[in-house]
Amino acid sequence: MNWDTEFAISIIPQLLQGLVVTIQATVIGYVVALILGLAVAILRRVDYIGPVVFVVFEFIRTTPVLVQLLFVFALAPPTVAPLTIGISVLGVHYAAYTAEVYRSGIEGVAKGQWEACRALSLPPLRVWGAVVMPQAIRKVIPPLGNYLISMFKDTPYLFAITVPEMMFMAKAIGTEAFRSMEAYTLAGLFFLAVSVPSAVIIRRLERRYAAV
Amino acid sequence: MQQSESQSTGAVGARSEQEPSNGEIVRFDQVVKRYGSNVVLNELDFSVAPGERVTLIGPSGSGKTTILRLLMTLESIDGGVIWVNGEPLSHMRRGGKLVKANETHLRRARKSIGMVFQQFNLFPNMSVRKNVTEGPVHSLGVAKDEANQRAEDLLDLVGLSDKIDAHPTQLSGGQQQRVAIARALAMRPQILLLDEVTSALDPELVAGVLDVLRNIAQTTDITMLCVTHEMSFARDVSHRVLMFDEGQVAEEGPPERIFGDPQEERTKSFLKAVLENG
User: Fold this and answer.
1) What is the DSSP string of B189-222?
2) Is the pTM of this model over 0.90?
3) Is ipTM > 0.85 here?
4) Pairs across A and B, CB distance < 8 A
5) Interval B225-264: pLDDT, tens
6) Do B123 and A45 touch (CB under 8 A)?
7) Which residue windows are transmembrane per the record (chain A) (predicted)?
8) CA distance to partner chain A, nearest, from residue B114 (Å)
9) What ranges do the domains of chain B cover?
10) Chain B residue set in contact with A, beta carbons under 8 Å
């Protein structure tokens, strides 16, 4: 199959449209994962609720995201937009991972810090908000950043539930024009164009926070 | 981690429900503490008078640090009752009976107690000022301005006024421990617990911290319970020395007697070992 540059250029706008959806899904899904993961990490330490939360999120963590996407897509009422389903499932799936990262960060906070909080009778909101989380977060920024990139690379799965992200667009172009190479190549390059700079930024953060 | 002070309603023995007399600020009543099968405190009875300075000495594992940790409610007891100011600390009243204290009771009850730790345990993400104002503002509800004033006064007392905007990581161990003392005092506790506060310090930094504590002992009427291996400091500040061994008080008395003329064989051999190593 030969490369048609003119055709490649002509499909860029369509692919960029897909890239916008991809980035949208990644960013919103990531925010969901960050917030929900934190809630999960904290709830896991609560009596009675903790073990239930643990089992649910271990289940989510150990089953493939593609299966979860198709499962929820099949169950959801048709009025719910596929993109909404995609973002929610990705966010919840990755929350299972970020919760583990937060957990290790929280466990890394010295026991003496908790004891000092008790000695000062600080209310729980202050213990978590002013003492434990600020110390835990520093340690978990690098691993959390890596999950952002993983998540970005997992967005092509949304293709399976008809979300018009970049791979979906590439496939559509291929089917329509009977040429696949240009679209897939460009899609790959666009992925690279986003994830390489992200990786560099995360490396830098890693160096900055590892120093403390 | 929040300790799980469960609300299990185990009634305690009749003896324990007698309230302590007014001459006591702290009373341990038949207190038992176990770690697994290891009994650390074995039906321990002792009390402390208001304003009294008590030094706890004894071999490691004798339960002296455990006493401080129980008073600070960092651990829960397995038997007996701890009283502070005539009110139960380890327990609370419910329907005329004493039941195990819940977290809410503990948070209120321990506000009259402050603690300085061996490892300082300052909050590394906060400035010195924030370390000292955090408790008064967020636990006692003191206004920010007043808490700031307290912090400035106390840091002056411990000789660290110039470090008020520094971070703990920028300070030496001795300076950190002096900030930790200021942080504990900012809560205006009636009882100050000092848990081997100089053990983690380089030798040349010990004197500065002990001077601060001597000064506090001379200028305030705060009740102090002190676990230390600094025998000369114990001799200077304490009214009474308790020698612990195997979870019980082996011997007690004024420092002159305990250090000068110990009666018990265990006290003699302990003091001999400390003096040889120190």
Assistant:
1) -SEEEEESTTTTS-HHHHHHHHHHHHHHHHH---
2) no
3) yes
4) 65
5) 999 988 889 999 999 999 999 888 999 999 999 999 999 9
6) no
7) 20-43, 52-74, 80-97, 157-178, 184-202
8) 6
9) 49-75+110-277
10) 1-4, 72-74, 107-108, 110-111, 113-115, 117, 119-126, 134-135, 138-139, 183-184, 187
